[in-house]
Amino acid sequence: MTASAPRPEVVPPETPIPMDFDLGEETREVLGLAERFGEGLRRGAREAEARDGLAPETVSAYSGLGLERLHWGEAAGGAGLGLRLKTLVLERLGHADAAAALALDRRAWVLTPLVTLGGGPRADLEAASPALHLDPGECLGLRDGRLGGSIPYLPAARADLLLVLRGRVLHALRSGLDLEAVAPGALHAAGASRLALDAPVAWSRELEPAVAWWVGASWRFPLAALLAGLARASYEYARAYCLERVVFGRPVAHHQAVAFIFADMAMAVETAGLCLEEAAVRAEALGPGAPSAAALDRAWLQASEAALYCTNHGVQLVGGAGYMRDHPVEKWMREARALSLLAGGPDAALEALAGAALTRASAMGEGAA
Amino acid sequence: MGSLGLYPFQVPEKVERLLATTRILGRQYLRPLGLEADRQGHAHPPDHPLYAMLAQAGYMERRLAQEAPEEEDGDAGRERWGARSAIAALEEASYWDRGMAVSLPGPGLGGPPVAQLGTPEQRGRFLSIFRDRSRPRWGAFGMTEAGAGSDVARIATRCERRGDRWVLRGEKTFCSNSPRADWIVVYATVDPALGRAGHRAFVVPRETPGLGPFKVERKMGLVAYETASFPLADCEVPAENLLGGEAAYSGNAGFVSAMKTFDLSRAAIAAMALGIGRSALDHASAFAAEAFDLARPLNRHRRVAERLATMGRRLDAGRLLCWKAAWLVDRRMPNSLEASMAKAWCAQAALETTSLAMEVLGEAGVVRDERVEKLFRDVKAMDLVEGTGQIQRLVIARRTLDYPRDEGVGR
Question: Residue B184 above 80 pLDDT?
Fold first, then answer.
C-alpha cells in the first residue's frame, strides 16, 4: 500500500454557532435554585445510597421546582428554556449527588425523544417511571410483535414504559416489565434492576439514521452533565481538603507534584464544562440530527474522561481517608465509573466520532475546499 | 454575523474577511515558503518579495490593530472582537505555516508593551513606522535570558540612569525576529535585589551602539523566522525610550506590563498550536483517504479513524478554552487563569495530534517530505514559549490554590 502525496485542503468546520459565556440573569437564578436544592441532595446522599432510593419528600420537592421539564417546549408542558440551561442545571445536580439527580431527572430525559420528535401515544408522556435501553447491535430478538432477551442492568427500580432503540427502530413496551432488583456497585439512589424480557411491543417507529442516532445520543446529554458535575465535585472537595491539611510544613496542595495534579484537574473540569455547553448550544441552534452529533460525542467523552480522572485523583489526594466512606470521594469514583458505562459507554461515542472522522477524511480525499 | 462559515463559532463579517484573506495568504505563500525555509534550513531574507508586497498592501497596519485590540471597537456599547479576531486569525495563519506567520512584518510581541505601557508620544514614535508602506519593518520583544526563561522575574540585564540616558548591560536570548527588527522592547532591572519592582522596559532602536551582534539560533523546527541571542554592551538609549516614563514604574508596573502581554499572547500561542494541530489532522485525513480504501471495514481503518477522532476532539476542546480566554479579554475581564489553561491544554493537544498524525502515516511519517514531520518539530515550541506547560500549571495553581508566589511563579 503506497500513498501518493495528499492534497492539503481545508475541510469546512462545523456549522458556526453563537458561543458566548454570558449566562444572563435568568439563567443564574435558575442555577442558584438548582445549587440550593443540590445542597440538600449532597447532605442526604449517603442516606439515599443506603436505602437504594430517594425519600418521597425529595422527589416531591424536586418536582415542585419545575426543573425537570425546563428544556421541553411549552406545548409539551415544559418551560421552553432550552437545552443549555437544562444541562447546566444537571451539572449542578451531578455536582451535588449524581445518583440522586439520575433518579430525579431520568423521566424527563427518557421522554425527551418523544417530545422532540413527536410520535407515540400522548399517554406515554404521562408514564411515571419510563426507562430507555439502547440496543445498537440488535441483541434483543423481535418475533411476532414481541421483544425478547436480557437487559443486564437498568438504573431504575421500576418501569411502566420501556423505550428500546434497536438498530434504528424505536420500540415502546408497556407490559411485561417485571424488573428484578440487583445490587449495584454505584448509583444506588437511582435504583438498579435487570430485566428478562419477553413482552409485546406497544408501538414501533422506524427512524432516519441521523434521528435514530440522535435518540440514543440524547441520553448522553444528562449523563455528560452529571459526569461533568462529578468531576467538579471531586476536584473541589479534594482541593479544600488539601488546602487545609498540612504535611511537611505546608498544605498538601502547595507541594508542586500535587499542585500540578490540581491544575490538570482544573483543566479537565473546564474543558468538560465548555464542551458540554457547546454541544447544547449546537443542538439548540441546529436541532436534532447529525450536525450537532459530533459535539455531543466529544462532550460525552470529555466529561467521561474528566470524571474518571478527577474522581480517581480525588480519592488519591485525600489519601487513605479518601478510601473511607467518611468522605464522599470514594462514592464519586464508583459513580463516575458506572455512569460512564451507560448509553453505550466510551465505545459508542468513539465509534460515532471515528465514523465522522472517516467521512471527513473521505470528503478530504475528494478535494473538499 | 458573517456567513462564510470559516470558523466553528459565529464571528462578524469583518473577522470572516480577515480569515478569508489569511487563508488565501496561507495557501499561496505561507505554506510553500514555510516548507522551503525548512528544507533550506534558514529563514527567508528581510528583502523577500513577500514581505515587501505585504508592507505595500498595508499588512503591518492591520497587525497593529490586531495586536492592540483595546484600541479597536472602542465605541461604547459595541461588542469588542479584537482578541477573538486575533486568535481566530492566528489559528488560521498557523494552520498554513506558523513559522512564516511569525516571520511576517509588524511589531510582533513588542507591540503590546508599547501600546499598553507607552505614552502617546512613544506610541506615535514607535508604532507609526508600521504605517510606512515603503518597506517591511519588524518589532521584537527581548525578555528571556540564559538564566531567566520562564522565571522572568529573575532577569539580570541591568539598566542604569546616566543623566538623560539609560545604559543597558546584559544579554538577551531566544528573541524572535530581532536580527531584522527596527526596534526591540528590552526588559532590564535597576537592581536585581528589587525583584519585579526593579523592572524597566525600553525601546532599543536597531542602530543603537552596543546592541548586537546577533547570533541566530539553530532550532529543531520553525526555521522560517529567526530566533537570536544578542548582547547589550553599554548600550545607551535616551531617557524618552523608557516606556511610560519613570513615573509609570511605581510598584511592579514594568513587570506587570510584561505579564499583561501574556494575557492575550498565551491564548495566541494556544491558538497557533491549534492551527498546527489542525494542519496535522487534515494532512493525516487526506493521507488516509488517499492511501487506504476507507470503504473497506478493516481493523487498521478503525484504528486510524479513532486516532483522527481523538485528534479532532482534543483540538476542539482546546479551541473552546482559547475562545473563552479571548472572550474575557474582549470583555475587559481578568483571564490569566483561562489563558494559562488554554496554553497548557492546546500545546499538549497539538503535540499529541501531530504525533498521532505521524502514526496514521506510519513509516512515511518519518520522511521530511511529509508535512507532518515538520509539524511535529514545529509544534513542540508551543509548549515552551510564553511559559512552559509547567509554568502554566504553576499559574493555574496560583489562581486556584493560592499557591505561594515564592514557589517560583510570577503571577
Answer: yes
Asked if A245 and A348 sit in the same domain, the reply is: yes
Q: Classify residue B43 by its DSSP letter.
A: P
Q: Which residues of chain B from 269 to 298 reach within 8 Å of chain A, CB to CB? A: 279, 282-283, 285-292, 294
Looking at the fold, whether A333 and A234 belong to one and the same domain comes out as yes
Q: Across residues B48-72, what is the average pLDDT?
A: 78
Please say if the pLDDT value at position B121 is more than 70. yes
Across the interface, whether the CB atoms of A274 and B324 are under 8 A apart is answered yes
Q: Is B20 on the interface with A (CB under 8 A)?
A: no
Q: Best interface-test mutation with A: which of B282, B333, B346 has the largest number of A CBs within 10 A?
A: B282
Are B286 and A9 an interchain contact pair (Cβ–Cβ within 8 Å)? yes
Q: What is the CATH number of the domain that holds A285?
A: 1.20.140.10
Which of these, B117, B138, B120, lies nearest to B183 by C-alpha position?
B138
| Interface probe, candidates A274, A277, A305, chain B, greatest B C-beta count within 10 A | A274
* Reported pTM: 0.88
List the single residue in A16, A361, A366 with the smallest CB-CB distance to B9.
A16
pLDDT (0 to 100) of residue B56: 94
Note the pLDDT of residue A256.
Answer: 93
**In the predicted structure, residue A8 carries a pLDDT above the cut 60:** no
When pLDDT is cut at 50, 70 and 90, the band that residue B253 belongs to is low
- Residue A233 and residue A191 in one domain: no
The domain total for chain A is 3
Helices A345-365, B253-291: crossing angle, 10 deg rounding: 80
pLDDT for residue B409 is more than 70:
no
Would you call B95 and A253 a contact, using CB atoms and an 8 Å cutoff? no
The CATH number of B115-119+137-252 is: 2.40.110.10
pLDDT mean across residues, chain A: 89
Q: Report ipTM for this prediction.
A: 0.85
The residue segments making up the domain with residue A189 are 123-207
The whole-angstrom separation of Cα B220 and Cα B299 is 35
Task: Indicate the range of B30-39, B76-85, B138-147 predicted with least confidence.
Answer: B76-85
Chain A CB contacts of B95 under 8 Å are 10
Q: Where are the alpha helices (DSSP H) in chain A?
A: 25-43, 45-50, 56-65, 83-117, 209-218, 220-244, 256-286, 293-318, 329-339, 345-365
How far B46 CA sits from the closest chain A CA (Å)?
Answer: 28
Pairing state of beta strands B139-142 and A203-206?
Answer: unpaired
